[in-house]
Structure formats: structure tokens, C-alpha cells
Amino acid sequence: MNYAVIDREEIPMLFIPNVKQTVFAEKSRQKEYALYIHIPFCKRKCHFCSIPVLTFKDETAIDSYLDKLIDEIKMNMNNLKGCVLKAVHIGGGTPSLLSVPQIKRLLDVIIGQFGDGLPEIVFEANPESLTQDKIDILAGYQNVTLNIGIQTFNSHRLREINRMEDVNHIKRCLRYALGKKNLDVGIDLIVGLPNSTLSDVKYDLEAVNEFGMKNIFIYPYRSEKKSFFFDYHKEVNYLSQDELIKIMEYVENEMYKGGFIAKSMYYWTRENKPLYLYSAHQIDGGEWIGVGAGAYSYLNFSVSRNSSIIEEDCSNATGCNKMRCELVRQNITSQLIWDLTFMIKKNDFDAERIKEKYGKIAEQYLHEILEKLEENGYSQQKNNKIRLSAKGKVLLDRVESLIQEVVLR
User: Fold this and answer.
1) SS3 of 24, please?
2) DSSP letter (8 states) at residue 316
3) Nearest to residue 188, comparing CAs of 156, 213, 225, 166?
4) How far apart are CA 171 and CA 204, in angstroms?
5) 3-state helix, strand, coil in the chain (%, to 5)
6) Mind listing the domains of the chain with CATH numbers?
């Protein structure tokens, strides 16, 4: 096998607060679910990224990985007959590293297993590995959304985060994709990258207007453990916490003025039809299956993570393709924390869903959490709806910690 491990991953605390009991995997018979397909390969790792990825060297490695991935998809199809598949999300890593034949092979398997009436398939891409031929293939299927991780249109910032800095190529890819009538397109942008200023944000928003973008995820920069910037943070200049909050407030005002609607914590749209259904399904408390090395699943109040012997031994092809599953059963406390943590990611808090699911047991927690969020400036009211403020989005780690502290106290 011609690839190497860049990093490892542990199950985030979000998934297993106050839970120690492990159980064996069970078949699920849930009515609705979503499917996440993980492609763990990258050409190189972005300096802000903490996700474990494998360096891509040749197509043979991905061919071998796809063999196992497709087997896993088919296995889950057998286990979930009669259930409704709400959405498919192909993420990574860098799914656009797949060749044209590999993309076609994967999509054909998905359509063959689940039918051609799927509500949506989201395919993530890095402009560096995205070509017109790959865009053509994606546009040849129904209900595909191409999500392009642009991060910024500033070539200096791109170079500093270890991404391709050819902005003209990025714009050509974006323009070509937007020209496909049968393809929905969205982009990712990051606000507050190291060494950036308000002028960077204004430049990125000008590009948004230039292309008439309808779907944008705008994330505030966060320094995450296991990322290059986290380890070498002293060598770059960061915006202060207050500066980043002010810039996020500026961005949100500009998005509203531009006719965008906030559908979730970071997703803005001017689209008439619902997109990014996998993310919406998660936020609404839905369950999903994750296939591929390192992917997470949430079924039957259990969180499982696929690990792979690829993390320990890449000395032979057979060993690199073996998967095993680590599964943790949630108790009622961790279920509540889980649901509350997803609730706040919806544009308007869905407190009624929490009350309906947990009854009176949740009311005392909801009251105290909402009170503390407001006290700290993490939430705001608009049209009698409660949502995270720009400060809450920037300081999401603190918001999540606050939820855990209230419920676990």
C-alpha cells in the first residue's frame, strides 16, 4: 500500500459524556436514517485541520479502499431493509481525489443499492483536485450537491494554510460547476484564519456576490488539537476573541443584507429548495450510519466509530482493509446532552423537540441552559426565537461545556 498515516483520532467527548459501558453492535430497524461515506485521503493536510487523514500517493490505494467501502455499504443495506434513507453525504478527507471512474463506481453503487430517487447526495471537494470531468460526472446524476471547500479566496491565506493558492483555478472550477443546471453547488469559507483581517472577509464576501452564490457555510476559525496551527501557534498571528466575534457579527449582518437565510448555525442559503439534508437530519435529532475508516454512526442510542487496522499496520493490502467497530451505548443523561448539543446548532433552538422527547425531565435543564446562555451573551432572541449569537458560535466549545455542566451537575 502506497500511503502513510498522518494522524490518529479518539472518540470526541461529545459522543460519550458520562458513559463507560460498551456493547456489541446490533442491527437497527429505525424508520429513517442518513448515510455518511468517509473518504480518508488527502493530498496534503491543511494547517487548521485536526481530522486524521491518509496521504494520497496513487489510485491503487483508493481502489483497494473502495472495495472494502462498497462491501460495507452493501452490508448496511441488508441490515436496514425497509427503512427510509433521507440523505447521503460523501465527505473526508478529500472525496474529489477520487478519479472519474472511481467517482462513477461509487455513485453507481449508491444508486444501485438505494435507488435513483434519493433526496440528495452531497459530495465534498477540494478545488485542487476538482476537474471539469469530475464536475461533469457529478452533474450526470440526480439530486447531487457539490460542496467545495474554498475556505478563502485570498491566495496569501491559502498558502499559509497549506492549500493550493491558485485563486484563478478555484474561480474557474466554481464558475464551471455553477454553470451546470443539474448540479447544486455550495462552498465553505472560514472567518478569522491566522494572519487574516477584516479586509480578507470583505474580499471573500465580494467573491460570493461576484458568483451569485446561493449556499455558503461560514465557519469561525477554531484552533483545534492535533492541527498544525495548534502545535505551532506561536508562529502565526491570531485575531483576538473579541475581534473574531465582531467580524462574525459583521459577516452575519452582510449575509442578511444579501438576502441569505440562516438555516443552521453556519449554513446560509438563498436557495428555494432544501439542501444539505444530511446535516439537517443530524441537527433534527435523526440517526445515521457512517461507513469507511474513522466514520461515526448514531443508531439505537449508540455511538459507534469504525476504526481500521490501517491505523496500526499498513504492511499488506489485506490488513489495511480490515475494519472493526467500537460501539458505546448512551444512557439517558448522555442522550439528553447529545440532543441539546445538536439543538443549539439549528438556527432557531428546537426546544419543543427536546420537551416532546424527554418530557418534564428536560424542562429544568432547558430553563437553566437558556438562562445561562443569555447571561453569557451566547444566545440572542429574534422574532421570538432563540438562537446562538455570533459570540456563541465563536465560543461553541464553551457553549457545549455549559450544557454538559448543567445536565451532569
Assistant:
1) coil
2) S
3) 213
4) 12
5) 45, 20, 35
6) 13-282 (3.80.30.20), 331-409 (1.10.10.920)
Mean residue pLDDT of the chain comes to 86
Question: Mutual orientation of helices 360-375 and 396-408 as an angle, nearest 10°?
Answer: 140
The answer to whether the CB of 406 falls within 8 A of the CB of 369 is: yes
Q: Are 138 and 144 in contact (CB under 8 A)?
A: yes
**DSSP-assigned letter for residue 142:** T
Cβ count within 10 A of residue 296: 16
For residue 60, give every residue at least 6 positions away whose Cβ sits within 8 Å of its Cβ, in sequence order, or none: 2
Secondary structure of 251-312 as H, E, C letters: HHHHHHHCCCEECECCEEECCCCCCCHHHHHHHCCCCEEEECCCCEEEECCEEEEEEEHHHC
Pairing of strands 41-42, 54-55: parallel
The whole-model pTM stands at: 0.88
Phi, psi torsion values for 72, nearest 5 degrees: -70, -40
Note the Cα 79 to chain centre separation in Å: 25
The residues near 142 (Cβ < 8 Å, ≥ 6 apart) are: 116, 118, 182
Using only C-alpha atoms, what is the Rg of the chain?
21
The partner residues of 338 in beta bridges, in order of sequence, read none
* Angstrom distance (rounded) from CA 358 to CA 363: 9
Phi, psi of 323, deg, nearest 5: -115, 150
Which pLDDT tens digit goes with each residue over 189-242?
999 999 999 999 999 999 999 999 999 999 999 988 888 888 876 667 889 999
